[in-house]
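discrete fold record:
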Amino acid sequence: MEGVVESILRSMSSINRPQMLFMLSLFGVLSIFCGKATFRNLSRYSNYCEKSYSRWYRRKFNFVEFNAKLIRHELAEAELLGVIDASFMKKSGKCTEGLGWFYNSCNDKAERGLETSVVAVVDVRSNTAYGIDSEQTIDKVPLQGKDKEHTRVDLYVDQIKRVSAELKALNVRYLAADSYYAKAKFVNTTLKLGFDIIGKLRIDANLKWLYEGDYSGVGRPRSFDGKVRITEGLSRFDFEGRLEDGVEVYSKVVWSVNLKRKIKVVILRWGQGDLAINIQMSS
């Protein structure tokens, strides 16, 4: 594995030989050291001193390019799906950069702490995820030359733009995301980048049936045929079949008022009980 990492580092034009040697040493140390990853502790397991670690950590390193090349080398024939999600970490104190209120899915509520947004690819055959990019969410950053601040959605959009080239190089077509990302700004940008989105909708999503009747020949053609209400049943959805475990699959193309576009809604039903609703959007 060390030979593979070294060959990838040599192929990266953004680093020179001294930085390549340091990164090789760092990756090796991170795989064997014990305790906290402080500069002093890491120096005990390598030939670099604490000051050298501090100096090299201030140098930029293109982890996105490195991760993408490593994944492409190891998973050349794999079927990959792009994913984006955020991870919450509790943090006390008042002076930590990026400290704010973020949603903690473990407790199903917003809590004070830190958040990291992660873009990864999933090997759908082995059901394993591989990270490509990780970025701390710091949402109170003024836009350049403007008084308006970056929102969290702006940060997630910028991250997808930054890693889009690497995702395409891995032949990733679909990007999976949860209901938070079902916003017009994120969806429209992602579709323009050439990806199709698979995700969820909010429980209060405003959807309308597309009118499928004949044109009467008078006035403006009718576009919609009422509001979609899942509680009224699935009679207007198309039955697609059953999965191996007996789960029924329904789908229908409808109009999303919030996203201002047609989307394909897929519903999974376990017998006569719970429903799981997913969406797919394509450019």
In short: Residues 207-281 form one domain.
